[in-house]
C-alpha cells in the first residue's frame, strides 16, 4: 500500500495484487488513520465490483461517525448502486471536492 500524505488528507493507493489482499492490509493499518481524511484510489489498480466496495461500508460509517471523510476513487461503478454511506467518485479531483464538501458540512453542523 502506497501512502501519500497531503495537506488535508492521505491518499492510499493499493500495491497489492487483489482487492482482498489490499483489504486485509488496510484493516491492519486503518487504526493508524483514525484522525486523517482518507482517499482510496482504486481506479489505477483494480477492476473493482460493487461487492468489493461494500467491504469498506463499515469503515466508511466509522469514519463518518468520527467526523472524518472517507472517499473511494473507482471508475466504472454506478453510484446509484452503492449505499449513500460510501463516497465513491471516478476521479481524484472529484474526491477532493467531496473532502471540501464534507468539511463545509461539518462546519455548518457546528454552528
Automatic annotation (TrEMBL):
InterPro entries: STAS_dom_sf. Gene3D superfamilies: STAS domain (3.30.750.24). This is Uncharacterized protein. It comes from Urechidicola vernalis.
Amino acid at each position: 500500500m502506497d501512502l501519500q500524505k497531503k495537506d488535508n488528507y492521505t491518499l492510499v493507493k493499493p500495491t497489492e495484487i487483489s482487492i482482498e489482499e489490499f483489504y486485509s492490509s488496510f484493516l491492519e493499518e486503518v487504526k493508524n488513520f483514525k484522525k486523517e481524511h482518507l482517499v482510496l484510489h482504486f481506479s489505477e489498480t483494480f477492476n473493482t465490483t460493487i461487492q468489493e466496495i461494500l467491504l469498506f461500508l463499515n469503515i466508511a460509517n466509522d469514519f463518518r461517525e468520527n467526523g472524518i471523510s472517507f472517499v473511494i476513487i473507482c471508475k466504472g461503478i454506478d453510484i446509484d448502486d452503492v449505499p449513500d454511506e460510501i463516497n465513491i467518485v471516478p476521479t481524484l479531483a472529484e474526491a477532493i471536492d467531496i473532502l471540501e464538501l464534507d468539511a463545509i458540512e461539518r462546519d455548518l453542523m457546528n454552528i
